[in-house]
Amino acid sequence: MFKQISRRHLIGAAAGFGAAGAGMLALSERARAAVTLTGVQWGGPWVNTAKTITERQDQWRVNWELHTGGSATIIPKIRASWPNVAYDFVAQYDPLYYIWAEQDWPEPLSVEEMPAFRDVPDEIFHRNSKGEIINVPITVTGTVFGFRKDTMPVEIRRIEDLLNPKLKGKVIIRDAVAGDTTIVQFAAAFGGDERNMDPGWDFLKKLVKSGNVGRVARAEVDFINALTSGECAVGCWNVGGWRKVAENFPCEFLILDKQDAPGLQMGLINEGYMIPKASRNKAETKRYLNWFINPENNEEYNKAIGAGPVNLKSKPGEFAQRFSFKTKEDRERFTRKFAFDVLAAKKNDVINRFETEIAPFIR
Amino acid sequence: MKRRLLLLLPGLLVLLACFVLPILNVAEKSFRRFTPADIFGSSRLPYTFQNYLITFNSVYLDYLLDMIWIGAVATVLSIALAFPVAYFVARRPSGPLRTTILAFLITFLFLSVLVRVYSLELTFGTVGLGGPLSSALGLSTTGRTYSELLVIVGLMHHGIPLSALLLIGAIQNVNPRLAEAAQALGASRWRAHLSITLPLSSRGILSAFLINYTLAVSAFVIPMVLGKGKVVFLSNLIYSRFGETANFPSGSAIAVELLILSSVIVYALQAAVSARWERG
């Protein structure tokens, strides 16, 4: 049977509905006051942290869209819809900055419009042919050679040590799509660089023929799984991936002096946002991103993803501190800045070469 | 007649819009020259055979052969293991065991492919039974042969329940009295089975083979996760071009080649078997 409805029930229900209505109204007022932007971001901790930070204010709301596949796949989508681009800002990294600049897509940025840039080192900015800043830097990270101390059967001090027969199946390498920087590091060990990658290719061929390559990783999760399960013990990966492994296992990183061990430096990578010229909310996007890279936000964002902040007033997380080089001299000795413009132009050739000259020998 | 054709029209229009046009679009893209960042604006780009010529390298033939043989082994093993299960279900009167097996097979089909591959990875990877199992087989868990085995098992994980469900109907259509008559005339059970039930189920076996094989050679997640970068199918190459480097012309060319190859295999097999059936 139905319950008897009393006057008290009715009053209670009316009060409840009233309160809910008032709450909804307040929320919709808040939503109406905020500007809604559309941003493209990487999934996982990248987007989750960005959401958490953004939710702390009322001025901007962001519709987050995730990169599907590699970060490069957004390029043809933008090209197809230009100038009716649906995005106000897009997360990209060094090699893609060059493609954006080539297409003349990025909105030029200035310190006047984005005062937070005053706290960002100048060398992190990318500029167009007119010398204008085109990226909103957000993260400094890098790729480093490292190994799990508890499963590594030999010591490594030079790139050639990766050929040691005791490392059978223990080396993890990147696949064709993201492997170009590792090949450059191999090349650097034997006198090559981005323009002359042949020494790197030769070494990679030797490495796969040695049988020491245990896995070809496509994504970060492959790297983390291979290292944490003990399947592989050594490789070159980004700091974020290493942080996950190092949470549970002792790891050592080989960031050695260029003079002692060429190729074993940390390869620098910058991540940031690009604002398309065709965005309908350029002014608000600039204001939002200026706020997003303030010292507190930049610190929180980068701690969560295990990378270094770009804002000089932010403190790097405990793990990222190992990879932060304070002086210019140290940066020159222990880090490598890739010529991503050269690598971007070679991308397709690198993939074809990997598929035809390397992959068939991986046993 | 006119009314019947009109009835066909909605279905044909959907097929045209959702199947034929996208394939034609992919085929057209496959002849365009690759220019970074200019995929969708490709009507301005010149036509070229380059995307196809690159894949005629012997290395790409190796990728193709790997895919063909791994798919074939997984399909044959799936059908061989599924047939007894299907026979048991088909010849058993309704009952709890039959229902349970059927429910089990159907549930297996609903299981996400990601759950399948990661469960296999956990069970037979380095941290699971992989270590002792690979030692027993004289293989290394990080070796290519072990990865190939895992991919075959991954393909069978889907292939066995699918084949069993497809074969149940085929076996049910074979009159059991024919085998009984053969036995009554002196044939052993095995001989009756091999000379009556199996040949009469062969059309069902062929259907199961074709469906399974098509799914196996177009598998993407299974070789990607269990192959560990050592076993690469054409679908993985297609994905890396479309999904990671935005080289749509090259991805389209490989996709067209895969479509042609799958069609040739299916039609050749069907033609060969049909010719045999017609000869009696």
Shape of chain B: globular
Number of separate helices of chain B: 13
Q: What order do the helices and strands of chain A follow?
A: HEHEHEHEEHHEHEHEEHHEHHEH
The Cα radius of gyration of chain B reads: 23 Å
Question: Gist?
Answer:
With 363 residues, chain A is of the alpha/beta class. Chain A is built from 13 helices and eleven strands. In chain A, strands 1, 2, 3, 4, 5, 6, 7, 8, 9, 10 and 11 form an eleven-stranded mixed beta sheet that branches.
How would you describe this structure in keywords?
heterodimer; A: 363 residues; alpha/beta; 11-stranded mixed sheet; 13 helices; 17% strand; B: 280 residues; mainly alpha
Topology:
The complex is a heterodimer of chains A (363) and B (280).
Chain A: H1 7-33, E1 35-41, H2 45-54, E2 60-66, H3 74-81, E3 89-93, H4 94-103, E4 136-148, E5 171-174, H5 180-189, H6 198-209, E6 213-217, H7 220-228, E7 234-238, H8 239-246, E8 251-253, E9 266-274, H9 282-292, H10 295-305, E10 308-309, H11 318-321, H12 328-334, E11 335-337, H13 340-358
Parallel strand pairs in A: 1-2, 1-3, 5-6, 5-7, 9-11
Antiparallel strand pairs in A: 3-9, 4-7, 4-8, 4-9, 4-10
Helix pairs in contact in A: 2-10, 4-13, 5-6, 7-8
Chain B: H1 2-29, H2 50-55, H3 58-90, H4 96-110, H5 113-124, H6 130-137, H7 144-172, H8 176-184, H9 189-200, H10 202-217, H11 221-226, H12 234-244, H13 248-279
